[in-house]
Amino acid sequence: MGRLENKVAIISGALGGQGQVAVSRFVAEGAKVVATDMSPEPDGRVAELVSETDAAVAYIGGDLCDYSLLGRIVELAIARFSGLDILFSNHGIMVGKPFLETTVEELDSVLAVNLRAPFLLSQVAAREMSKRGGGSIIHNSSVGGLVGFPTMAAYGASKGGLAQLARSMATDLAEYNIRVNAICPGVVDTPMPERYVEGLGVNKESVFAEMEGMHLMNRLGRPEEIVNVALFLASDEASFMTGAVIPVDGGLSAI
Ligand SMILES: NC(=O)c1ccc[n+]([C@@H]2O[C@H](COP(=O)([O-])OP(=O)(O)OC[C@H]3O[C@@H](n4cnc5c(N)ncnc54)[C@H](O)[C@@H]3O)[C@@H](O)[C@H]2O)c1
């Protein structure tokens, strides 16, 4: 029996590096999953899971900054799987720009995607979870929300805000038996850091070597190493955990 048997989960950012792994792993542990991301159609492993007979995964595409989408995601969970127990709010964007060069548009967009959307998606999800007698919400924050990095002011502010959102939500939602926690990954081997490094227009290998060296483990994280913690927090094994902000960063924030 899987750790998420009879649970229904929403996973955002489901087509990204960590999202694809999260959807597969949650399903392998017995969950039914509503996967959501920007693209109108799923791809990769998510697309395979959606196309299976009696699929454990339903997909809905759209921009999470569109408020009307949020209710439709939760409605899909109810229509297809009869309820909602877990939200892994995993989507995110990165702006890698020096503080003095970050534009108003870049700041607004990173806050809208990384902070406003998780706030509002959690709100509609928690309303449904409260009807089921409880649930678990996990925010994918970042080590950039715990410590300062150059070129990460906007991203770090959004992710620091997200960590604090998890703590605050935990206090408001405890009476509904909804646990809320945040994970703070170090640099994870997904398309996100690739895009960041490409945007810098400098020697890719040397920047990656530098990023690896920031971790005590001297390497980047693998998506499954982050998803393992999300999975644990989603499951009843974490029944005494709420309001926690957990670095999953190969020791980066310990230095
Ligand atoms: N990769 C890293 O080094 C790293 C480190 C710390 C934290 N994180 C966080 O982990 C999470 C997952 O990132 P990843 O590494 O898988 O990167 P990724 O870029 O592969 O995936 C992010 C996903 O979020 C989706 N997304 C972005 N904006 C959206 C929007 N407005 N509406 C709907 N979906 C949207 C993207 O389409 C993408 O599929 C993000 O929140 C990210 O900030 C990543």
Structure description:
This protein is α/β, with parallel strands linked by helices. The protein has one domain (8-254): NAD(P)-binding Rossmann-like Domain (Rossmann fold, 3-Layer(aba) Sandwich). Helix content is 46%, strand content 15%. The chain is built from eight helices and seven strands. The chain has helices at residues 17-28, 44-51, 67-81, 104-132, 153-173, 191-200, 204-213, 223-234; strands at residues 8-12, 32-37, 57-61, 86-89, 135-140, 178-185, 245-248. It has a seven-stranded parallel β-sheet, sandwiched between helices. α1 packs across α8 and α3 runs parallel beside α4. The N and C termini lie far apart (39 Å). The model has no long low-confidence stretch (mean pLDDT 97). Bound molecules: nicotinamide-adenine-dinucleotide. Residues 13, 15-19, 37-38, 63-65, 90-93, 113, 140, 142, 185, 187-188, 190-193 line the site of nicotinamide-adenine-dinucleotide.
Provide the descriptors you would attach to this structure in a database record.
255 residues, alpha/beta, Rossmann fold, binds nicotinamide-adenine-dinucleotide
